[in-house]
Structure to design on (533 residues):
């Protein structure tokens, strides 16, 4: 038991988040072990994005704990910036900085936050651009790139800080169907490289392929969780079945 | 609706509250200390008794208050009329400057020239030229009232600034908005009036209010033409009694006038920020 505790990168315990009188997250427990990929699925408004934002300390939690490598980072006494330096998030809407080129977007945090030598950070950023298949786009501004290209730059930006935990918030939801593949291929490769990932997605087929564990969120609670084959293939809870049936009807499970 | 909180959450909440209390206390203390230091430095200065008599004489302040207030009423009237004129003229010039197409070149050039001229000219010189130059033409129908002439000068100069603020707002509305409006069949004028301007004006409200505060005190400059406004009234009193307190009274009144506008500007900016946050 103790061994397993040490293995956990992220441990969310009884997380509660309210906006006004609506309870978005109502006591969530999720654990992500080192080099594991945990996928959160659920209908729109089930709290997937809120969960990721809370984990990245972008939103203050109302109750419960978030432990990163065994340290409670949700404590108001904890150094939030230090915890954020060890995580990276990729947003649904990319959120690239429009006034910076692709390479500057990627090298910003290494240079400014992690004090990497600017020349080295630049080189590293070019490497990452190569990794996400965007050689030759280093000096392009985000509005010159397609959605898929922008999201690939955003992934490179997140990887540039060598995060202990990578958070992916429905990163393909804002993309055209034909651009989804290029982004997911990169995530697959990153996952295979041993990155610890917590992600929210609507791409069930993709979730099945890369996840070690799938968590189904419903009305702010963990309704069902387990290995992807079981949760996606043979769900026990009626809510999960209902949700998956609707998703299949929409053509997402391919 | 209250929720049962875990002891952990309750303790965190208490901690956050105590931190907030401490920050407030530190801020309060440092403010008091700085204010006290400045107060001591001023009142211990060698010339303080002298300054107190010439600038801060309560009797003089009380005596001059009615006439200064009466003058301020003229400032307020000038302010309201000038602001209305400035908004209309400024918006008109801004719209003219954004007209596209070669047909409108002369209009655009004129509008640009207007902005260049009146934004560059010192307000004081504009006041002299219009306040003394216009009546000197002895044309029929030209007003000779100094307050009216001062008002005209203020409108001319300030509308050049305000036009640029409006133009920045118009250009900040994304071209896709115009495309969407045109695609629905709205004419240039309709899309401007119904789609672009409402967004532009909302966006530039804070800088417009800033210009309004600037105008509030610049209204006092019409005193150079001889209009008996708050500053002129103070000047007359000061010249008669060799005491500068009336100036301080007039200055304080202008500050009082500006405070509500400043709070309105804050509220408008906060509302805009909330609206953005909600999106």
């Amino acid at each position: 038991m103790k061994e397993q505790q040490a293995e956990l990168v992220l441990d969310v315990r009884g997380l509660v988040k309210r906006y006004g009188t609506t309870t978005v997250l109502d006591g969530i427990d999720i654990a992500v072990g080192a080099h594991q990929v945990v996928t959160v699925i659920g209908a729109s408004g089930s709290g997937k994005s809120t969960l990721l934002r809370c984990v990245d300390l972008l939103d203050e939690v109302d109750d419960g704990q978030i432990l990163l490598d065994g340290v409670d980072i949700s404590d108001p006494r904890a150094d939030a910036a230090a915890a954020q330096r060890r995580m990276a998030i990729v947003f649904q809407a990319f959120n690239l900085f429009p006034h910076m080129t692709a390479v500057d977007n990627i090298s910003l945090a290494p240079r400014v936050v992690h004090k990497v030598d600017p020349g080295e950070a630049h080189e590293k950023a070019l490497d990452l651009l190569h990794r996400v298949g965007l050689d030759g786009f280093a000096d392009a501004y985000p509005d010159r790139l397609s959605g898929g290209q922008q999201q690939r730059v955003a992934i490179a930006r997140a990887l540039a800080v060598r995060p202990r935990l990578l958070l992916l918030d429905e990163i393909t939801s804002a993309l055209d169907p034909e651009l989804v593949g290029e982004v997911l291929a990169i995530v697959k490769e990153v996952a295979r490289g041993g990155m610890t990932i917590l992600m929210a997605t609507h791409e069930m087929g993709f979730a099945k392929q890369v996840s070690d564990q799938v968590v189904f969120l419903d009305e702010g609670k963990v309704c069902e969780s387990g290995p992807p084959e079981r949760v996606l293939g043979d769900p026990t809870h009626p809510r999960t079945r209902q949700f998956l049936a609707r998703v299949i009807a929409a053509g997402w499970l391919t | 609706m209250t929720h049962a909180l875990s002891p952990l959450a309750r303790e965190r909440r208490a901690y956050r509250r105590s931190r907030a209390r401490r920050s407030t206390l530190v801020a309060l203390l440092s403010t008091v200390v700085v204010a006290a230091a400045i107060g001591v430095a001023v009142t211990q200065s060698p010339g303080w008794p002298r300054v107190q008599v010439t600038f801060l004489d309560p009797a003089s302040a009380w005596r001059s208050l009615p006439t200064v207030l009466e003058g301020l009423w003229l400032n307020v009237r000038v302010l309201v009329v000038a602001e209305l004129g400035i908004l209309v003229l400024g918006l008109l010039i801004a719209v003219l400057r954004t007209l596209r197409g070669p047909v409108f070149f002369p209009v655009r050039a004129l509008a640009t020239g207007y902005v260049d001229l009146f934004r560059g000219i010192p307000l004081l010189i504009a006041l002299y030229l219009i306040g003394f130059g216009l009546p000197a033409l002895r044309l029929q129908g030209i007003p000779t009232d100094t307050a009216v002439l001062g008002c005209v000068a203020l409108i001319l100069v300030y509308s050049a600034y305000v036009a640029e603020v409006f133009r920045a707002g118009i250009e900040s509305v994304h071209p896709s908005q115009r495309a969407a409006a045109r695609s629905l069949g709205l004419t240039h004028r309709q899309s401007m009036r119904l789609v672009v301007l409402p967004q532009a004006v909302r966006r530039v409200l804070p800088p417009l209010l800033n210009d309004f505060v600037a105008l509030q005190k610049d209204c006092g400059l019409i005193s150079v033409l001889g209009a008996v406004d708050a500053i002129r009234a103070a000047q007359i009193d000061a010249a008669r009694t060799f005491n500068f307190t009336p100036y301080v009274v007039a200055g304080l009144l202008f500050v009082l006038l500006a405070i509500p506008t400043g709070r309105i500007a804050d509220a408008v900016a906060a509302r805009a920020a909330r609206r953005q946050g909600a999106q």
